[in-house]
């Protein structure tokens, strides 16, 4: 084609695609008269070479969509054929050939080709050729069609079943079943790409669609009429609902025997490993159930309920021992429940079972006389199973909220009234304390729907204001702001506390346990005198647990409650919190992840210790705080543990003189074999002691700290090569400014810094990443401040000032100017003037190089080379 014509064609195609992307499909506005059909076909055939190019995907898409529109003209296609032409030249065959040639492409042109072929075979004059098309599809799959072509073939069948209906499908139903069986075969061809089509997610998804649509063609034509009770919102003030039309008609239709197999395949589909397949299967179950009598749909609900019992055996504390693989099954079951409920397929007799599986088992559930199989389980709203370093189950909790949302939309208030409080409480707990934002939002939406549809939720509007979409979007806000606002209502207070104690404080994520302990404090603040001691008593029994997470959560929570006691002046209760620490076995500190226990214990000491606690005799259940702080906290290599121990000892130093401890610290700091970790910990604690209350060996502490900074201090470089580089604080200090690097052995320092300087300065002109160049430049400029490396670093500066990227030169000049201002360099006025007056970002590269040489010469003069 001529180049200008091609460009104009591409521009037109681009406009069409952009219109579809932002608005809707514009193909119906294409010309679609009788005269356009041969024109479009001729273009697709004559420009086949051009259309086959990879960059012509947009043109292929538009061409196929245009043909799919034109082929719907209400005239027999045979009327457009010339007499005595070979069969391959017939209009129908030409359209068929064009469509099939696009099926193997991976892009959207495959979708338009599927639409073309589906519309072609749905024509009344083409219905006789539908069996041949299905036979061709089966043959192509068996011969080794690639996955993209198989997806296109399935797309054609799906469109034909949906738009053609029973009139098109039933005459060829056996052939359609054969196509579905081939797609489900584990060995369809010798082609490695399609030997097992069931491994492809899209293939499995389309296969489920075909199964459902084939079943819909076999079943009675109209869905069973059901009573969707809560479609109308409750009218404000009056509480009157709009009447719903209900048709209590007999539903007595013959059910095909194949439907049982369809249900079995859909039940297997909701257990699939991919969400898309599970969701498609769940929607299919609801659609099939809507065409069946109520007794049959109840059996489907029971079959879905049986999925919850596949994994896990009951254990104590109302939980199930579930493997991570249970997530897929529970998610599929919840989606199926939700779709069934949304379509009104969950009868009143099954609502109790659905709520029993979805809501967390609690004292409210047991009071409703649930069956034994439902009381000793961990339910979908609390599904969170640890898997390695993370957990699975957020999709289950999300879909469980979807179930509650669907139930309150479809069921009447009379049916739901025994369970509404349980639904509300569990929705609120999930919306406040779930780890994932999408789950919190989903639970909030379910609660909002329950409030709006029923109008009988206790304090519904007030609670909804505190737990709306935006309030629960930020986890910290949900835990610490929204939770206490809800806890002021008696119906929610105790369930919130129980959820925090049983779920949040045992969570696998330490951040959740920290937030949970803080949330427990602000919730107990509502009635601290009554709630605080009771919560502490329950938490104290967990300190001997073998589960590190449980012990950690208990320690944090007792510390937070103690903090609340301190703010309110409840000294006796605060002392009891301190005594609880004596229940903690000393071996807990040496367990795996024991640093969390040490840190939390130090935090508890800092919040609960008082003058009375310090003076407790050993026989008064006094915990050994010296062992926790001095032997475990300050000697730990974790900086967080050291900080917590320092804070605890700082509080203690306000109640007693710690001069003896300070003397021991000084001796340990000055020991020849003292490690940098030990010295860092001691330095931190010496700087944190309360010297305004007691002497606490202040002079000894000052002498020790100052002595560690003088030039005469003994070198510590022997440890640098294996300790300092593993310290996050040291690395941060190094990157912020090389001039603050601590001294080390003479010679070793020069060698180490020179090596680092070479890594940062060499090859700057070859780098292409501006951020990387800028980071290297900052290191080089910082090294100018160090006497051993000033001369070498100044030589590298020239390559940065004269860099081909003007921004690098400007940033280097700015960094050098700041260096002259902070390092008190003598006779640097001329250098500063040159750096300021040169417009580094606007001058050409040659001039920038000349200016860079001038700067380096002045820099050498300033540093005294």
TrEMBL record:
Record-linked InterPro entries: ARM-like (IPR011989), ARM-type_fold (IPR016024), ARM_TBCD_2nd (IPR058033), HEAT_type_2 (IPR021133), TBCD (IPR033162)
Domain Tubulin-folding cofactor D ARM repeats per the UniProt entry, residue ranges: 242-461
Biological processes, Gene Ontology terms: microtubule cytoskeleton organization; post-chaperonin tubulin folding pathway; tubulin complex assembly
Recorded coiled-coil stretches: none
One term of GO molecular function: beta-tubulin binding
PANTHER family hit by this protein: BETA-TUBULIN COFACTOR D (PTHR12658), TUBULIN-SPECIFIC CHAPERONE D (PTHR12658:SF0)
Protein name: Tubulin-folding cofactor D ARM repeats domain-containing protein
Species assigned in the record: Rhizoctonia solani
């Amino acid at each position: 084609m001529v180049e200008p014509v091609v460009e104009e064609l591409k521009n037109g195609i681009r406009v069409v695609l952009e219109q579809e992307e932002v608005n809707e499909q514009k193909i119906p506005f294409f010309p679609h008269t009788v005269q356009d059909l041969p024109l479009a076909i001729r273009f697709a055939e004559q420009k086949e070479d051009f259309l086959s190019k990879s960059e012509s995907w947009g043109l292929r898409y538009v061409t196929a969509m245009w043909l799919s529109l034109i082929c719907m003209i209400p005239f027999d296609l045979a009327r457009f054929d010339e007499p005595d032409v070979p069969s391959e030249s017939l209009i129908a065959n030409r359209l068929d050939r064009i469509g099939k040639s696009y099926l193997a492409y991976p892009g959207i042109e495959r979708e338009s080709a599927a639409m073309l072929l589906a519309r072609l075979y749905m024509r009344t004059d083409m219905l006789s050729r539908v069996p041949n098309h299905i036979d061709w599809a089966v043959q192509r799959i068996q011969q080794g069609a690639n996955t993209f072509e198989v997806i296109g073939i399935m797309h054609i069948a799906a469109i034909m079943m949906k738009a053609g209906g029973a009139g098109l499908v039933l005459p060829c139903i056996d052939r359609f079943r054969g196509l579905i069986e081939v797609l489900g075969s584990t060995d369809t061809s010798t082609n490695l790409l399609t030997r097992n089509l069931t491994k492809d997610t899209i293939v499995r998804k389309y296969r489920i669609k075909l199964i459902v649509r084939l079943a819909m063609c076999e079943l009675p034509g109209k869905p069973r009429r059901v009573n969707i009770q809560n479609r109308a919102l409750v009218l404000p003030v009056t509480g009157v609902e709009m009447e719903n039309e209900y048709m209590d008609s007999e539903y007595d239709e013959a059910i095909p025997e194949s439907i049982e197999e369809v249900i079995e395949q859909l039940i297997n589909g909701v257990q699939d490993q991919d969400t898309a397949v599970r969701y498609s299967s769940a929607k299919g179950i609801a659609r099939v159930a809507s065409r069946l009598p109520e007794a049959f749909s109840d059996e489907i609900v029971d079959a879905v309920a049986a999925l919850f019992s596949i994994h896990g055996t009951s254990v104590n504390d109302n939980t199930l021992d579930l493997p991570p693989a249970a997530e897929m099954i529970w998610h599929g079951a919840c989606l199926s429940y939700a779709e069934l409920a949304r379509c009104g397929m969950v009868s009143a007799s099954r609502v109790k079972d659905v709520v029993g599986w979805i809501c967390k088992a609690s004292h409210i559930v047991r009071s409703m006389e649930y069956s034994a199989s439902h009381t000793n389980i961990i339910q979908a709203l609390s599904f969170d199973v640890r898997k390695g370093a993370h957990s699975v189950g957020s999709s289950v909790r999300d879909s469980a909220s979807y179930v509650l949302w669907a139930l309150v939309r479809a069921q009447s208030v009379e049916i739901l009234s025994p369970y509404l409080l349980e639904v509300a409480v569990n929705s609120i707990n999930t919306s406040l304390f779930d780890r994932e934002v999408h789950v919190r939002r989903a639970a909030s939406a379910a609660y909002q729907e329950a409030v709006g549809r029923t109008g009988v939720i206790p304090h519904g509007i007030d609670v909804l204001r505190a737990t709306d979409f935006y309030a629960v979007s930020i986890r910290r806000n949900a835990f610490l702001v929204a939770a206490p606002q809800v806890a002021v209502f008696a119906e929610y207070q105790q369930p919130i506390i129980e959820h925090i104690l049983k779920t949040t404080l045992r969570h696998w994520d330490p951040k959740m346990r920290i937030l949970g302990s803080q949330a427990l404090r602000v919730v107990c603040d509502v009635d601290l005198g009554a709630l605080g001691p009771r919560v502490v008593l329950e938490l104290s029994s967990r300190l001997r647990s073998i589960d590190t997470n449980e012990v950690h959560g208990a320690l944090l929570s007792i510390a937070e409650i103690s903090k609340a006691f301190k703010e309110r002046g409840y000294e006796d209760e605060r002392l009891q919190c301190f005594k609880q620490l004596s229940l903690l076995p000393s071996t807990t500190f040496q367990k795996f992840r024991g640093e969390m226990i040490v840190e939390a214990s130090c935090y508890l000491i800092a919040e609960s210790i008082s003058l009375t606690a310090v003076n407790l005799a050993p026989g008064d259940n006094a915990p050994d705080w010296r062992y926790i702080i001095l032997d475990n906290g300050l000697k730990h290599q974790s900086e967080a543990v050291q900080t917590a121990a320092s804070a605890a000892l700082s509080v203690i130093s306000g109640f007693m003189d710690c001069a003896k401890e300070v003397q021991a610290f000084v001796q340990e700091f000055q020991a020849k074999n003292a490690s940098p970790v030990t010295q860092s910990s001691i330095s931190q604690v010496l700087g944190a002691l309360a010297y305004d209350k007691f002497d606490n060996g202040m002079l000894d502490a000052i002498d020790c700290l100052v002595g560690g900074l003088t030039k005469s201090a003994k070198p510590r470089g022997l440890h640098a090569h294996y300790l300092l580089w593993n310290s996050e604080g040291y690395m941060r200090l190094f990157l912020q400014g090389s001039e603050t690097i601590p001294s080390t052995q003479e010679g070793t320092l020069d060698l180490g810094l020179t090596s680092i300087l070479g890594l940062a300065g060499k090859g700057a002109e070859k780098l292409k990443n501006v951020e990387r160049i800028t980071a290297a430049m900052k290191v080089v400029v910082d090294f100018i401040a160090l006497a051993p490396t000033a001369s070498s670093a100044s030589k590298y500066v020239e390559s940065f000032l004269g860099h081909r990227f003007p921004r690098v030169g400007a940033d280097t000049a700015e960094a050098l100017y700041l260096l002259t201002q902070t390092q008190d360099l003598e006779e640097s006025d001329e250098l500063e003037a040159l750096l300021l007056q040169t417009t580094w970002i606007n001058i050409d590269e040659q001039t920038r190089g000349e200016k860079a040489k001038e700067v380096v010469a002045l820099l050498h003069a300033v540093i005294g080379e």
